[in-house]
Amino acid sequence: MSPAAVVDVLALTLLQLAFGLLVFNLLTPGRHLGGGFFALHGVLAVAAVALAFAASRGQGLLLAPAPMPIAPRSLFWVFAASLALHTLLARVDAVGWARTALLPGLLAGGALLASRAYAAPLAGRGLGSAWLACGLVLGALLFGAVVWAMNLGHWYLVSRELPFQLLARASEAYGALALVRCLFAIGALGLLAWPSVGEAGYAFANLVDPLRDGLFFWSRVLWGLLAPLALAPFVIRTARMKSNQAATGLLYVALVFVMIGELLATYLTLRSGLPV
Predict the structure, then answer these.
(1) What DSSP state is assigned to residue 151?
(2) Are 40 and 151 in contact, with CB atoms under 8 Å apart?
(3) Of the candidates 161, 252, 110, 274, which has an alpha carbon nearest to the alpha carbon of residue 207?
(4) Which of these, 21, 30, 53, lies nearest to 149 by C-alpha position?
(5) What are the tens digits of pLDDT across the range 40-86?
(6) Residues 185-233: pLDDT tens digits?
(7) Where in the chain is the domain with CATH 1.20.120?
(8) Which CATH architecture has domain 1-123?
(9) Are 238 and 197 in contact, with CB atoms under 8 Å apart?
(10) Using an 8 Å Cβ cutoff, are 189 and 254 in contact?
């Protein structure tokens, strides 16, 4: 794997994390949570964006040209500025304004992330860019959900007045996204790519071949898809039992699985052109 490909994998995965955190910061009700909770995720998202830009030096897949009316670089800076403004407003407990500040970032970040499927080297490969874009967005949401839920579990140590229903909903969101991620992979790879006699079928054959990408692919399936899905019912059950420490511990494990899985997914997507 070339150094440029390593940088693309890292930058794209960090962009996914930042977008996922933005989405869940926007969806999180501010009634029971103080500005510190939102500022924490804002800092994490800003750090992810900064690391992505620094690693790629503003080049590579992160900001590669794509057929869209707005330049990717412009979308990137709107996304970054929205996250930074959100973090500053949340830090001074202006939670309502902080969530409003995320709206431009939601549009810019979503467009930037989805457009990476229409940029080289992914454009037009495998099942098509639309499938790749859906895979990138789903990966971002799952990554953001598990980080958000894990940090929410920790927040019960900061605020004893938080209702346990929040952690239960966070766990359910994580479980639902883990299930959707698995179903998407089954549909894209098992129902479309595998039977294909064209480029997608050839790419899938290389994916499962143990002499090519098979080791990485089956590791992706086991640790990045099946393991998070298997953990989800236990996380949800412990959260509903108001056992936040047990749920948070399980979410730690889930975070490791999801992080490894999404890194492998990005790598395999760049290699095969399929939404792994």
Answers:
(1) H
(2) yes
(3) 274
(4) 21
(5) 999 999 999 999 999 998 889 999 999 999 999 999 999 999 999 99
(6) 999 999 999 998 888 999 999 999 998 999 999 999 999 999 999 999 9
(7) 1-123
(8) Up-down Bundle (1.20)
(9) no
(10) no
